[in-house]
């Protein structure tokens, strides 16, 4: 089984979905040790450079994981989320991506790799490895990352809007959206992503009845009506740590998003939430499997795409 978890920050979801379908288009072009001859130190350079940032700012792990997620959900894992807008608006300028962070880390890693092996390692591979390494650096699981991705040349704002999941999805929509993707956990969210659940759930100035009333009161102290800037921890007390706390919160009706509450309305997802909230759950293993599969979605390999010199622009 593949388990899809949650998206981080503004206009994203926090979830766990069992999915059975996976699109591994061109994934056969990926392999472990892809750069063993062309750039043998690539993976160690990426890990060392990423560690330099995470050791100083552990909260960067979530944004790096989120960058990888948002990349793979639009045009596959091709580094398109890293491209700046030119004549056309790029993915990074879409509303769900405006709060993305960590670009400077990827740029620094790319620079370090380019010094060792110019024109060899793709930005897409760097992003996949940095996401894996940053999670393991905050005591999360690790997973295999076969390499050989090529960088895409196209990035469209409209495609980001069309493909990234909504925090308002129900379970059916979540399953459809995550059927060929993956997921992740840890981080924070802007109040705007769940504000309607606090102040105007049914259009009558009420709160979402599926949310614990005590939790609603606590959130209202942090998020005032119309607040679009404040951040709230997804997992109070453990938002910097990779753990199962999210599932305990959802089981107690303390998930931030409507998509969190929806997980308790489906027998399959509710069973997993309850299982994952218990000691000794298989969440870390499930998560690693999910991320490994997501990293293979619709990749460019062989002679497709290019190896960018700079991750924010095509060659």
From TrEMBL:
Residues spanning the signal sequence: 1-27
Presence of keyword Signal: yes
Residues that hold substrate according to the record: 165
SUPFAM superfamilies referenced in this protein's UniProt entry, alphabetically: Heme-dependent peroxidases (SSF48113)
Disulfide bridge positions per record: 39-117, 72-77, 123-311, 191-223
CDD domains tied to this protein: secretory_peroxidase (cd00693)
Binding, Ca(2+) 1: 71, 74, 76, 78, 80, 91
Keyword field contains Oxidoreductase: yes
UniProt-annotated location(s): Secreted
EC number in record: 1.11.1.7
Ligand binding (Ca(2+) 2): 185, 235, 243
Cofactor binding note of this UniProt entry: Binds 2 calcium ions per subunit.
Cofactor: Ca(2+); heme b
Site (Transition state stabilizer): 66
Catalytic activity: 2 a phenolic donor + H2O2 = 2 a phenolic radical donor + 2 H2O
GO cellular component: extracellular region
Active site feature: 70
Described purpose of this protein according to its UniProt entry: Removal of H(2)O(2), oxidation of toxic reductants, biosynthesis and degradation of lignin, suberization, auxin catabolism, response to environmental stresses such as wounding, pathogen attack and oxidative stress. These functions might be dependent on each isozyme/isoform in each plant tissue.
Family that this chain belongs to: Belongs to the peroxidase family. Classical plant (class III) peroxidase subfamily.
Protein name: Peroxidase
Originating organism: Gossypium raimondii (Peruvian cotton)
């Amino acid at each position: 089984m593949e388990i899809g978890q949650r998206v981080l920050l503004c206009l994203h979801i926090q979830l766990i979905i069992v999915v059975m379908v996976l699109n591994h288009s061109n994934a056969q072009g990926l392999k472990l040790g892809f750069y063993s001859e062309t750039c043998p130190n690539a993976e160690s350079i990426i890990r060392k450079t990423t560690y330099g940032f995470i050791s100083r700012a552990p909260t960067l792990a979530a944004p790096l994981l989120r960058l990888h997620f948002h990349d793979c959900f639009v045009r596959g894992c091709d580094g398109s989320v890293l491209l700046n807008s030119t004549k056309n608006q790029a993915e990074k300028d879409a509303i769900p991506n405006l709060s993305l962070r960590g670009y400077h880390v990827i740029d620094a890693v790319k620079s370090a790799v380019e010094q060792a092996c110019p024109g060899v390692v793709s930005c897409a591979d760097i992003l996949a490895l940095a996401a894996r390494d940053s999670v393991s650096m905050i005591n999360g699981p690790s997973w295999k990352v076969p390499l050989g991705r090529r960088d895409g040349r196209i990035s469209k704002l409209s495609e980001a809007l069309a493909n990234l999941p909504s925090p308002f999805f129900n379970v059916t929509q979540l399953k459809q959206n995550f059927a060929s993707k993956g997921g992740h956990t840890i981080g924070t969210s802007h109040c705007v992503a769940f504000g309607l659940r606090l102040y105007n759930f049914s259009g009558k100035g009420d709160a979402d009845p599926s949310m614990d009333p005590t939790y609603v009161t606590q959130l209202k102290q942090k998020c005032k009506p119309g607040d679009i800037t404040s951040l709230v921890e997804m997992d109070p007390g453990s938002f910097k740590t990779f753990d199962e706390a999210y599932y305990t919160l959802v089981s107690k009706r303390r998930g931030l998003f409507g998509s969190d509450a929806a997980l308790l309305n489906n027998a399959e997802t509710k069973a997993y939430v309850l299982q994952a909230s218990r000691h000794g759950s298989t969440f870390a293993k499930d998560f690693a499997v999910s991320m490994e599969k997501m990293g293979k979605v619709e990749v460019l390999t062989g002679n497709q795409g290019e190896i960018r010199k700079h991750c924010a622009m095509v060659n």
